[in-house]
Amino acid sequence: MRTGTAATRETVSQAWSPVLTAAGVEGQELGRQILALAHQVAVHSLSGPLTDPGREAEDKVALARRLFTGTVDERVVDLLSAMVRGRWSKAVDLVSALHDLGIEAILAGAHADGSVKQIEQQLFEVHEQIADNRELREALTPSRRTSTEARVRLVEAVFAPHISAPAMSLVDWCMRHHAEGGPLRNLRRVVELAAEMRQRTIVDVVTAIPMTSAQEERLRTILERRLGTRIDLNCEVDSAVIGGARISTRNYVMDRTVRSAVAELRTRLAG
User: Fold this and answer.
1) Which residues of 25-60 are buried (b: 16+ CB within 10 A; e: fewer)?
2) If both were cysteines, with which of 6, 84, 88, 208 could 60 make a disulfide (CB 3.0 to 4.6 Å apart)?
3) What span, in angstroms and rounded, lies between the C-alpha atoms of 178 and 184?
4) Integer Cα distance of 129 and 131 in angstroms
């Protein structure tokens, strides 16, 4: 039986799902507001008072409504009220749950108006541009030398003219949310969630030389049969693998590279 954070998240998700479905394309704006609310809860250290197990549930609901009624959509206030009624294993879990719900809402709204594929592609391109530009990557990496808001302003200056407002909201979240792997890891996570919304799985393929179109199509067919889902291939070339291929998803890795085989042989010889 689930307790604490897991139980609360499940209860809230079940209640929120029909609201989000009914919202349709408005989910994008609701999601943006949820992420903004999560930011306010985090920066003003409100997660403690809003999850305090020593306070009556209705006292926490009253606090949430006093703080946010009139500043966000009433549906978002109702969502937060439902969340603070529950029990949380750790105060920070409330903010994490708000992040997940906000991202889900933006992507659900995009799915409703048919733009989720566009958002996925835009986020992927942002990820690739940051990964390929050392100066930009270093400027956006969390550091004591720059504030989070300064990094958000920089990423907006670079990308806002070129991507949709919902996509930019998700990029902003990726900059503000501190996680292992930094903004690039956050961006990849959101790209994967967008792909899942389209019932697809992103597969990274690393080879020593570029694959032909025929090879890519053959590999896609094999992987779709094996994984039981539609596949989007993200192909990269790395001469260091020497030969073969390394294929990976979030939950699956198959390394058939020459480099891996050599490393395994060395390990066996050393043993």
Assistant:
1) ebbbbbbbbbbbbbbebbeeebbebbbeeeeeeeeb
2) 84
3) 11
4) 5
How many other CB atoms are found less than 10 A from the CB of residue 142?
A: 15
Contacts 24+ apart (CB under 8 A), 129-133: 130/183, 130/184, 130/187, 131/184
Kindly give the pairing relationship between strand 200-207 and strand 230-237: parallel
pTM above 0.85, yes or no: no
The strand pairing partners of 234, in sequence order, are: 204
Confidence of residue 204 (pLDDT cuts 50, 70, 90): confident
d(CA 31, CA 112): 13
Cα separations in angstroms, 60 against 49, 52, 57, 207, 210:
7, 8, 5, 54, 57
pLDDT bin (cut points 50, 70, 90) of residue 111 is very high
Q: Return d(Cα 48, Cα 53) in angstroms, integer.
A: 9
